[in-house]
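To make the argument concrete, we let one protein speak, a sequence paired with a row of structure tokens, as a model reads it:
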Amino acid sequence: MWGGLDWLLILFLGVCRLLGLAPPEQSERENIIQNILAVLVLVVVVSSVLAVIGTLVLK
């Protein structure tokens, strides 16, 4: 369970950093990992929203 919470924290910090809300106080490797995870999360959220809109339009 703690592993999942750690990943959620990493994703949250990555999204905050991508939006410019978090101070850059980490190593370069952690920054790269968080940026990649943040972009993946944003892609998943946007694609799921578009899928919901598409199913509503096609009904």
